[in-house]
Specification:
The chain is α/β, with parallel strands linked by helices and about 600 residues long. It is built from eleven helices and 22 strands. The termini are far apart. The structure holds flavin-adenine dinucleotide (FAD).
Length: about 600
């Protein structure tokens, strides 16, 4: 028997004892969220024996069909499905001059955990990036010259093009049954869709969801101003749907209990309703829950096994021929660093790659619009990805000459289902407590529309992840340390996008409104919650500029693939999961059709 950990934070064992070694398997997958479950499905179907090690507990679709499951306190407020931050977390600071402190509450960086990962309780906004997003650096230089890229920005082109990834976006969207309207079919612009998107081979598998009243006001105002509103691509089914793997999903009932929780009527595409049942049905895929991987073990340039702590506190070693790291941006980067795989990034010298190019995006702008009598929006109803969007100010869809920044945002009027425990709108000037506050809240709760922008965010030399020198997790590993702040491009972009937001807000004719841009510095104590964290194990063309090649295979350890948003060299305006799903299918294809035929470093074509 190997080492037995007491999972009590105060009783960590000091010395190292050999872990129990288990029977080898073909493939170990670390983390069973969207990326892990796609890889599990694709590889288990080929007959390989696949083991998924998942740090959290089991979460079944059936758990969300129980009476009382509509529980805003449990899921929205207490974030029942998120990682337990007394077990592990990250430390945060804005600059290298500060000492980072551990985050013990889910603020801006909430972590998913358990089978399905954050995919179980995501909102379902399912985007593709545009061709420009994949070539941000070269396209910017070609159109505006080198000087438009801020001096300390480390943005880089992806080694993959939109066209290469298109069939895999398509596969992800059809597996999930995305409801939407194409804007560009094989190069032909389609009325009602996003005219700025890259060409797609075919329509979305399902028509768009129904529109809410607030979205209609937004769409009318946007059209009046000459913009191009379209329905958000949503992972909620607008009608019953059978996917290409033979799994059936139900139609959305707009109950409003969507993000932060599972779906009562199986209308939201999550791993449990799409990829996991197919993977498990093969009989070749085993999930071990409460299995926290603490290290990937290597010998020379081969990964030979992973070490994990199981639910009873035992330390176990699982050997495998192929190891897939699909544990989301934080753990992907963390496990590479604690396992000594790849050269850690050093911001002082700009050398090294692991931890480099961290970025995410905040809400920019956030616009609450307050109406009076005659306008009732029923915010408690909706679906996680119910929204109407404009992309007129995204990426390079408008001329940036003289603006002093690159990129932009997508701007959406949303009806995601906002219960009163978390959505408490009151117009600026309302006291923050007492009877006036209560009166305003009771009045405006049903009379407020929200518009939110998500923006492009460049990567910078000073924004990165490394191992914290002061704090450890309960398994004895140093915590991941995040150093991050907005850059000059984002600050200039904020001013511009606030002015665009203001124009649209006025055109929607509310009684009152506010338009919020970015603060001067990022404040980790504020209660944002957009889990679109990218970078740390980025994809690129050489080992000098990246951790993984275009197939997401480690340059240093060829039988290790690192799959997820950790591979993004910078974040675009779009929520990342559509691209994470496409990349998972792309990597699975490369493993099945290239790597397994000739195991070793894959030569990019
Ligand atoms: C509330 C919320 C709403 C969101 N909405 C959207 C949206 O609308 N659109 C969008 O594009 N994205 C959205 N996201 C982000 C989206 O959920 C992620 O992009 C997506 O889940 C990433 O998939 P993944 O498989 O890489 O990681 P995850 O789904 O996070 O899965 C990773 C898994 O790895 C496990 N793990 C981590 N460390 C270890 C370890 N050491 N050992 C073993 N297991 C480990 C975790 O427990 C987790 O289950 C949302 C996220 C949240 C939290």
């Amino acid at each position: 028997m190997g080492k037995v950990f007491s999972l009590n934070i105060h009783e960590l064992p000091e010395e190292k004892i050999m872990a129990t070694t288990l029977k080898p398997v073909d493939v170990v997958i670390i983390g069973v969220g969207w990326a892990g479950s796609i890889l599990a499905k694709e590889l288990a179907q080929t007959g390989l024996k696949v083991v998924g090690l998942e740090r959290g507990g089991n979460r079944r679709q059936e758990d969300f069909t129980l009476p009382g499951i509509h529980d805003q306190l449990k899921y929205d407020r207490r974030l029942e499905l998120f990682e337990n931050l007394s077990r592990t977390t990250l430390t945060f600071r804005n600059t290298t001059r500060e000492v980072a402190r551990p985050m013990r509450r889910h603020g801006p960086f909430p972590w998913g955990e358990g089978v399905g990962g954050a995919g179980l309780h995501w909102a379902g906004w399912t985007w593709r990036m545009t061709p420009w997003d994949f070539q941000i650096k070269s396209q910017t230089i070609a159109r505006y010259g080198e000087k438009m890229i801020p001096e300390d920005s480390t943005i880089q082109d992806w080694p993959i093009t939109y066209d290469e990834l298109e069939p895999y976006y398509d596969k992800f969207e059809y597996t999930l049954g995305i409801s939407g309207k194409a804007g560009n079919l094989k190069g032909e612009i389609q009325p009602g869709g996003n005219p700025f998107e890259g060409p797609r081979a075919r329509e979305y598998p399902n028509p768009p969801l129904k529109r809410s009243y607030g979205e209609t006001l937004f769409a009318n105002a946007a059209r009046e101003l000459g913009y191009h509103p379209f329905p958000m691509p949503a992972a909620q089914m607008s009608q019953p749907y059978k996917n290409p793997d033979g799994v059936t999903l139900g139609a959305c009932v707009y109950c409003g209990y969507c993000m932060n929780t599972g779906c009562e009527v199986m209308a939201k595409a999550v791993p449990q309703t799409t990829t996991l049942p197919v993977a498990l049905k093969t009989g070749n895929f085993e999930i071990r829950t409460h299995a926290a991987v603490t290290r990937i073990n290597t010998s020379g340039n081969r990964a030979i096994s992973v070490t994990y702590i199981d639910g009873q506190g035992r330390e176990l070693e699982q050997p495998a021929d192929l190891i897939l790291l699909t544990a989301f941006t934080w753990s992907n980067t963390h496990l590479l660093l604690v396992s000594g795989i790849g050269k850690p990034y050093n911001p002082a010298t700009g050398t090294g790659v692991v931890g480099k190019n961290y970025s995410w995006h905040n809400a920019l702008p956030y616009i609450p619009l307050y109406y009076d009598e005659g306008h009732i929006f029923n915010p408690f109803m909706g679906a996680g990805a119910l929204g109407t969007v404009i992309a007129d100010f995204q990426g390079d869809n408008f001329d940036h000459t003289g603006l002093g920044f690159i990129g932009g945002n997508i701007l959406a009027a949303i009806a995601m289902g906002h219960g009163p425990l978390t959505f408490q709108p009151t117009p600026p000037g309302t006291p923050s407590w007492g009877s006036e506050w209560k009166k305003a809240l009771a009045y405006y709760y049903t009379r407020t529309v929200q518009i939110i922008g998500l923006h492009d965010h460049l990567s910078y030399r000073g924004n990165y992840m490394d191992l914290d020198p002061n704090y450890r997790d309960i398994y004895g590993n140093p915590l991941l340390r995040l150093t991050y702040d907005y850059g000059p491009n984002e600050r200039r972009m904020s001013e511009y996008l606030v002015s665009v937001g203001d124009k649209i807000a006025k055109a929607m004719k509310p009684s009152k409104y506010a338009v919020y841009g970015l603060d001067a510095h990022f404040n980790a104590g504020a209660g944002y919650g957009i889990i679109h964290q990218v970078g740390g194990a980025i994809t690129g063309t050489t080992p000098a500029n990246s951790v993984v090649n275009k197939y997401l295979q480690s340059w240093d350890v060829p039988n290790l693939f690192v799959i997820g948003a950790s591979s993004f060299p910078q974040i675009s305006s779009f929520n990342p999961t559509g691209t994470v799903g496409a990349l998972a299918y792309f990597a699975a294809d490369a493993i099945k059709n290239k790597y397994l035929k000739n195991p070793g470093p894959l030569v990019p074509s």
